[in-house]
Amino acid sequence: MKDVLVIDDDKKICWAFEQFLESEGYRPIIANNAEEGLRRIAADKPDVVLLDVKLPGMSGLEALGEIKARHPWVIVVIITAYDDVETTIEAMRLQAFDFVPKPIDLDIVKSVLEQAFRTQSVRSTLPTKTADESSTAEIGHRLVGKSSQMREIYKLIGIMASNTMTVLIEGETGTGKDLVAHAIHKGSSRKDAPFVPVDCGALPDDLLESELFGYEAGAFTDAKKEGKPGRFELANGGTLFLDEVSNMTPTLQAKLLRALQTQEIERLGGTQRLKVDVRVIAATNQELSEMVKRGQFREDLYYRFKRIALHLPPLRERQEDIPLLITHFLQLIQEELDKPIRGISKEGMELLQDYPWPGNVRELENCIRSAGSLCRADVILPDDLPPEIRTGHQVDSTGTSQLEMSLKSVLKDVTKEAITQGKRELYAEVVALLDKSLIELVLDEFSGNHSKTADLLGMSRTTLLKKIKQSNSGF
Q: Measuring CA to CA, which residue among 395, 375, 318, 380 is closest to residue 346?
């Protein structure tokens, strides 16, 4: 039997909840104040608590804090007023699972309870704690993966770490090129010397030149009186990582090539050649060979970089690494979010493994970070994932433009008719009609299944039920 504890001092509300819960197959437990509720949790160990905010003695929010401290496995749903925004925000900050507004809508209560017990069901399939007990500082951002592609990458990193030659790392945005560069440096004899990164795509040409080579006093307007050392000087004895090197202009490419060949640099506005001992690792998301053919990148610099080249595979080509990456990111974000996250449901994991990940590992990390922030308990469910993950694809630009063209064609006639009839508030009318019509159509496609409809529309089941309730269409 699924136990639900109701903590409310209004006996009429408790009676109504009792009747409703029994009719839905739950076992209701009633307490009329927070202190009694805490005793019942310890004795009966209910799965879910419906907790009113306004209670005699200890308040609902105080009780929420006590429940989470003493019984972290219990899911707490707050009962509050529609306009009590501050209380709602504070309750969610204290890790309430959800809130039920007053006046109470039993359809919403039913939906929230279904999601709460679905969460408890997923919890039972997960380990008590994440597999790695290391601290966030120990885990860090690092390369993760056991696929055949990643094993080859690790071998190449080892080879590259054993020498001081220039390295080129190629791969799509978000594949972890900076992590590979760090790994090569950390495994090399230069590991105790500086690792200095430069994002060549983030700086305009004149600033990038001064960042790389430094400048002398008075070299240009606003230059510091004492001058400034460049990244080559700062990386002396260590490694200089040039990210997105394809963004360099031909002039800057020539200066870089000269520095690589001579291991000497010259500050802007200076005349003295400075000797440097720097290993350069370059990275790009572009096909440098194609840029060379188009005359956009120096051929001699390209071959200088390509002495040793490493290509990082996109995430879609190593999907077997996704569960490992998810576990890694969950461990990484727990301290940041200040809440434990034990794992992700089987359905959620399947969705993540089926998605093509155009943004690669970085997109996956951002997805897990977002889902971890939004999940209401210590497990991530499909509803916590972004809409594009739940639907399995992103809306491409062609599809979007076709949709816009179709809508504009219809709205053009609607707008003309509204002007002729002297209508006002057309925006609200059209949006409400579109909202209602779209929900009707999707519901019809899924034969009235609310969960599937909510997934396709990219909204929670609770929000869908609210919209259906508000509509006068009778669907």
A: 380
Instruction: State residue 52 phi and psi, 5-degree precision.
Output: -75, 145
Q: Are 119 and 2 in contact (CB under 8 A)?
A: no
381 Cβ neighbours under 8 A, 6+ residues apart: 115, 118, 119, 122, 344, 345, 347, 348, 375
Both tokens of residue 351? 């969705």
Same domain assignment for residues 158 and 291: yes
Helix (H, G, I), strand (E, B) or coil at 310: strand
Contact 119/377 with Cβ under 8 angstroms? Answer: yes
* Domain span including residue 46: 2-123
Question: Could you tell me if residue 310 is inside a domain?
Answer: yes
Q: How many residues does the chain have?
A: 475
Contacts of 319 (CB under 8 A, 6+ apart): 353
Domain CATH for 368: 1.10.8.60
Please give the span between the terminal C-alpha atoms of the chain, in angstroms, as a whole number. Answer: 33
pLDDT tens-digit map of 217-269: 766 656 566 678 899 999 999 999 999 999 898 889 999 999 999 999 988 87
Rg of the chain on CA atoms, in Å? 30
Within a 10 A sphere around the Cβ of 285, how many other Cβ atoms?
17
Q: Classify residue 97: in a domain, yes or no.
A: yes
273-323 pLDDT, tens digit per residue, is 999 999 999 999 998 999 999 899 999 999 998 888 899 999 999 999 999
Answer yes or no: is 136 within a domain: no
Among the candidates 108, 123, 138, a domain finishes at 123
The reply to whether 162 and 272 lie within a common domain is yes
Q: Is the pTM higher than 0.70?
A: no
